[in-house]
Amino acid sequence: MTAASQARPAVTEWLLLFLLGLLWGGSFFFARIAVAEVPPFTLVFFRLFLAALALHIYLRGRMALYPLLAQHWRSFALMGLINNALPHTLIFFGQTQIGAGLAAILNATTPIFTVLIAHRFTEDEKLTTAKIVGCLLGLAGTAVLIGPGVFTSTSAPLWALLLPLCAALSYGFAGTYAKRFRGLPAPVTATGQLTASSTMMLPVMLIADRPWTLAFPSPTAAAAILALALLSTALGYLLYFRIIAVSGATYASLVTLLVPPSAILLGAIFLGERLGFGELTGMALIGLGLLVLNGMLTIRR
User: Fold this and answer.
1) The domain containing residue 131 runs over which residues?
2) Per residue in 249-289, pLDDT tens?
3) Which of 149, 137, 76, 79 is nearest to 108 (CA)?
4) d(Cα 84, Cα 89) in Å, to the nearest integer?
């Protein structure tokens, strides 16, 4: 085996990781465009429904999809609530007031919440010195981001800053709960939670938004909804589970470092968004904390 052939898998894995970071960073960009015309509940429903439909078409009943959906529907319903319906709704409501880049930075605290929740509710993922330092750095970065909003009236409303953090907390619970799906094919898990979450969002959308009274979205907003559902959600899940299968969950979790820069870049180029020094400092602290949590920076006692 040549050196080139040995290097090729690593290069492919990095390309997949960067592509996933671009897709998930793009979700904040697409949502920022769509939420200007489509109410958050309606936007969440179409994101989840179209993604679920795409994955059903992709699987076409393979991997014992429908028997597994019937067998585990309660678990899929809870996972769909805390990993899809609730966090997406919180983020979209927050993005009615804040930009794509800032929402992505705040949501990048997900691994920090995951570590703290896993320490409380599992026996095999307790806090270590490195995890404590990583959490403290991430929380410091979050405080830098949130702090100005508490004391000034010119920045984004505090509630809009807190909603992506609440979404990150929900994702943290989902990451811990997801352990029960280890024995299921990953595409089935993705399809099951998206099917359940889109089903539970349907009555919420109909009652809260009365979509038949809304104006039809512009071509730009409609394209953003399709990209959000098909690229950032359906394709994003398939890529994520492919990376986990090839390289492991720890490697896949590095995507959290790539999502904020992708969202910031897209927001800056296409939406004219700009981040201040405090926001960039907060992102740097959160990123440093994630590097420590992922073991890329060694912390000695």
Assistant:
1) 3-293
2) 667 777 877 888 889 889 989 999 887 887 888 888 888 88
3) 137
4) 8
C-alpha to C-alpha distance for 256 and 271, rounded to whole angstroms: 22
Cβ contact 264:273 at 8 Å = yes
- The structure tokens listed for 111 are 């691994």
Question: Helix 129-151 and helix 158-177: axis angle, to 10°?
Answer: 160
129 Cβ contact partners less than 8 Å away, ≥ 6 residues apart? 299, 300, 301
Contact 99, 263 (CB under 8 A): no
51 inside domain? yes
In Å, how far from its chain's centre is CA 32? 15
pLDDT digits (tens, 9 = 90+) for 138-153: 888 888 877 665 445 4
Interatomic CA distance for residues 8 and 238, integer angstroms: 21
With respect to residue 65, please indicate whether it lies within any of the assigned structural domains. Answer: yes
Phi, psi (deg, nearest 5) at residue 230: -85, -40
User: What CA dihedral angle connects 162, 165, 166 and 169, to 10 degrees?
Assistant: -160
Q: CA 177 to CA 166: how far, in whole Å?
A: 17
Residue at 286 is within a domain: yes
Q: What is the pLDDT of residue 119?
A: 86
Is residue 300 included in any domain, yes or no? no
The residue with tokens 């585990």 is: 72
Q: Tally the domains of the chain.
A: 1
Q: Of 28, 43, 71, nearest to 226 (Cα)?
A: 43
User: By C-alpha distance, which of 67, 85, 92 is closest to 198?
Assistant: 85
Q: Is 242 within 8 Å of 187 (Cβ atoms)? A: no
| Local structure of residue 95 (DSSP, 8 states) | T
Q: Looking at the whole model, is its pTM more than 0.85?
A: yes
Cα–Cα dist 122/125, whole Å: 6
> In which residue are the tokens 């290069």 written?
11
